[in-house]
From TrEMBL:
Its cofactor is Mn(2+); Mg(2+). One of its GO terms (molecular function) is oxidoreductase activity. It holds the Pfam family Iso_dh. This is Isocitrate/isopropylmalate dehydrogenase family protein. The keyword NAD applies. Residues 5-349 form the Isopropylmalate dehydrogenase-like domain. The keyword Lipid metabolism does not apply. Keywords: Manganese, Metal-binding, NAD, Oxidoreductase. InterPro entries: ICDH/IPMDH (IPR050501), IsoPropMal-DH-like_dom (IPR024084). PANTHER family: D-MALATE DEHYDROGENASE [DECARBOXYLATING].
Length: 354
C-alpha cells in the first residue's frame, strides 16, 4: 500500500471548511486506489500572523519542501494589517518566492451542468492560465515606497524568469488533455508590450522560446484585448502565459465565466516544491456558515494528487465532480455558493466517486 505525505495549511476564513471537504474527498478517493494519505498540519496565515507577528511558523518552508505535496486553503483577513497598510496574513510572497514556485497554473473549465453568465457550451471553455509567480509587479511587495503624498511600486521582468515560465507554458500545451475548439495547440502571450518596456522584454523572450516549439502555435494579445476576448471568445484559448499581476486579474475574470471563483483550483509549481490552493481568497463574510463552494479546493486536491503521480485518483475526483454537476446533485446559486451548502457538495462528490 503506497502513501502520499500531504502538508495541510487550513488557512483563514472559509479555508478550514474547504480543506476539510477536500481532504474527505481525497482520502476516500485515494483509499479506492489503495493509497493512504498521511496528513500533517502546518498552521499559517492571518491568525498565525496576529498571534506571532509572522504568517509562517519557524521552519515551515523546510517542512513544506519535505512533503510530497501541499494542500493550502485561502489565507488572509482584511483587518490583519502590517504597519505599511498591506495585509500581514498573506502567504503569496512567502511561499511563492520562498519555495520558488515560479509557475502558477490556473485551469479554467466550464463543466457540464454548471450555471454560468456565459452562453458558451460546456467543454468549450477549457484553457489554462500560466501566471508567472515570482517576479513582475509582485516583486515590489514590501519594497515599494510611500509617503503622505505619493507611493510607487516597481515591476521587474527578467530574461531568466520569463524564459522558465514560458517554457513551462509550452510544455503544458504539449501535455494537457483539454483542447481549444479548433483543436490547434497554442500558447497565447498576454502583455502590454505596446506601452511598457518590461512587457516588451517579456514578449521578446516569449518569441524566442516559441521558436523552439514549432509544433505549437504562438499567439499574442495585449492584456486589455485579452480581457475582452476571454469573455467574448473564450473558446479560442488553450494555454495563456503572462506576468504575475495580469495573471492575478485575468484568472479571476476567467473564473467569472465558468461558475465563479469557487470552481477554480490552482497549482504553484517549482523545481523543488509545489502547493495547491483555490484561486480565490478567504471570503470572511461567508466563513463558518456552510455557504462556500468547496469545488475549487477539491479540484486543487486532484491537481496535487496528479502532481504526486496519483493520476488515477486525480482523474477519479475530477470525474466525480463533473458527474455531481452533470446529474444535478450539485448546483451553484447565483451568489456563488452551492445549493444545500458546502457539506452537501462534499457528500455528493464522495457519492459520485466510482
Ligand atoms: P475572495 O476571493 O475571498 O472573495 C471574493 C468574493 O467571492 C466574495 O464575495 C466571496 O464571498 C466570494 N467567494 C470566494 N470564494 C468563494 C467560494 N469558494 N464559494 C462561494 N463564494 C466565494 O476575495 P476578497 O474578498 O477580495 O479577499 C478576502 C481575503 O482573502 C483577503 O484577505 C485577501 O487578501 C485574501 N486572499 C487570499 C488568497 C489566497 O490565500 N490565495 C487569494 C485571494 C485573496
Ligand atoms: C491569488 C491572491 C494573491 C495574489 C494574494 C492573496 C496575495 O489574490 O493567489 O490570486 O494576489 O497573488
Ligand atoms: Mn488573486
Amino acid at each position: 500500500r503506497s502513501t502520499v505525505q500531504v502538508s495541510v495549511i487550513p488557512g483563514d476564513g472559509i479555508g478550514p471548511e474547504l480543506v476539510e471537504s477536500a481532504l474527505a474527498v481525497m482520502t476516500e478517493a485515494s483509499a479506492r486506489d489503495g493509497v493512504e494519505l498521511v496528513l500533517r498540519e502546518e498552521p499559517a496565515g492571518a491568525a498565525v500572523y496576529a498571534e506571532t507577528g509572522d504568517a509562517l511558523l519557524p521552519g515551515a518552508l523546510d517542512r513544506l519542501r519535505a512533503a510530497d505535496g501541499v494542500l493550502k486553503g485561502p489565507v488572509g483577513l482584511p483587518e490583519v494589517r502590517k504597519p505599511d497598510g498591506t495585509e500581514g496574513g498573506l502567504l503569496g510572497g512567502l511561499l511563492r518566492i520562498g519555495l520558488d514556485t515560479f509557475a502558477n497554473v490556473r485551469p479554467i473549465r466550464l463543466l457540464p451542468g454548471v450555471r454560468t453568465v456565459m452562453r458558451s457550451e460546456p467543454g468549450s471553455i477549457d484553457y489554462v492560465i500560466v501566471r508567472e509567480n515570482t517576479e513582475g509587479l509582485y516583486l515590489s511587495r514590501g519594497a515599494g515606497v510611500r509617503n503622505h503624498h505619493a507611493a510607487s511600486d516597481q515591476m521587474l521582468i527578467t530574461r531568466a524568469g520569463t524564459e522558465r515560465v514560458v517554457r513551462f507554458a509550452f510544455e503544458q500545451a504539449r501535455q494537457r488533455r483539454g483542447a481549444p475548439r479548433d483543436g490547434v495547440r497554442r500558447v497565447t502571450c498576454v502583455d502590454k508590450s505596446n506601452v511598457l518596456r518590461s512587457f516588451a522584454l517579456f514578449r521578446d523572450v516569449f518569441d524566442e522560446v516559441a521558436a523552439r516549439y514549432p509544433d505549437i502555435e504562438a499567439d499574442h494579445l495585449y492584456a486589455d484585448a485579452a480581457a475582452h476576448a476571454l469573455v467574448v471568445e473564450p473558446e479560442r484559448f488553450d494555454v495563456l502565459v503572462m506576468e504575475n499581476f495580469l495573471g492575478d486579474i485575468l484568472s479571476d475574470l476567467g473564473a467569472g465565466t465558468v461558475g465563479g471563483l469557487g470552481m477554480c483550483p490552482s497549482g504553484n509549481i517549482g523545481a523543488e516544491a509545489a502547493y495547491f490552493e483555490p484561486i480565490h481568497g478567504s471570503a470572511p463574510m461567508i466563513a463558518g456558515k456552510n455557504l462556500a463552494n468547496p469545488v475549487s479546493q477539491i479540484l486543487s486536491g486532484a491537481l496535487l494528487l496528479r502532481h504526486c503521480g496519483q493520476e488515477a485518483t486525480a482523474a477519479r475526483i475530477e470525474a466525480a465532480v463533473e458527474s455531481a454537476f452533470a446529474t444535478g446533485r450539485v448546483s451553484i446559486l447565483p451568489s456563488g455558493g452551492p445549493e444545500g451548502g458546502t457539506e452537501s457538495v462534499t457528500q455528493a462528490v464522495i457519492g459520485a466517486l466510482g
